[in-house]
Inverse folding.
């Protein structure tokens, strides 16, 4: 039985989504991270993250932590469209 490339891509995508869901259920993401953790998640330097917070592009809370929702927002803004990173 042959399947098309599109069908194969959908099967792979579903498997990846199930794997990510399983991983997140085993180790849930924190609600906020420090500047170094944010930099790692965004693939930037902590100095750049500090600049982004100072410029208002990323919001930090009163104790100097960055909500993970801000990281998600920054990642989706850097990759418009579906909000997902595309493989090339």
């Amino acid at each position: 039985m042959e399947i098309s490339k599109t069908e194969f891509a959908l099967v792979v995508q579903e498997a990846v989504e199930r794997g990510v869901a399983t991983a997140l259920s085993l180790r849930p993401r924190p609600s906020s991270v420090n500047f170094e953790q944010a930099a790692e998640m965004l693939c930037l330097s902590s100095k750049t993250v500090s600049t982004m917070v100072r410029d208002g592009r990323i919001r930090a809370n009163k104790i100097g932590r960055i909500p993970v929702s801000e990281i998600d927002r920054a990642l989706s803004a850097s990759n418009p469209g579906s909000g997902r990173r595309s493989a090339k």
Summary: The chain has two domains: 1-29, 31-80. The first helix runs from residue 5 to 26. The chain has a mean pLDDT of 86.
